[in-house]
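Pilot study result, target chain (215 residues):
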Amino acid sequence: MILKATIDWRLCFIADSEALVQKDIIKTIDQAIEGGATLIQLRVKKWTDREFYFLALEVKKRLFSRKIPLIINDRLDLALAVEAEGVHLGQGDLPITVARKLAGENLLIGISVNNVEEAIKAEREGANYVGAGPIFWTSSKTDLRPPIGPEGLKAICQAISIPVLAIGGITAASVPEIMAAGASGVAVISAIALASDPKEAARKIRKFIDIDLKK
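Predicted structure:
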């Protein structure tokens, strides 16, 4: 288990099975890591539980030696089954307090938030981080909530003390204003998954993140 204090939040690649339907998920994850991804979230919506489990198990094995955390989207049971480092919940999933009771203190628990009120509640209930967004419009999710823009992100970052990952329509070009708003890092799907060269796409995003952090 990777210690919470050692998590590098800079670049989370959300490996979404729908976005990667035309690509090899494992290979794309490898390319994203080679390009600089520091965190992997596995998001599978339409596979069977068995298929999701064996994919997550394989990803976990590959990440372990690299000391890169694996976050499972939505499915607390599968996160526990493969001994992932964390689970990411949506507003319609299990309450954080219930997830914490089931998972204990060793599992990272993150949750998607769309406003300051949700962010404050998440921190109060024991979330380890929040995914704030969508920052911009994105086609990666069908249940899209109102884009909050950099200003909405800034308000969330100023309201809580836990890490904030910005998500939603983020590209390398938009990273500077995202980081300037106070985000701990960015989480992307399409920017890497749909790129012709995922490794290079990740590298470009990391370049802008690291430039900003050096300021």
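One observation from the pilot: The chain has one domain: 7-213. A full batch analysis is planned for the follow-on phase.
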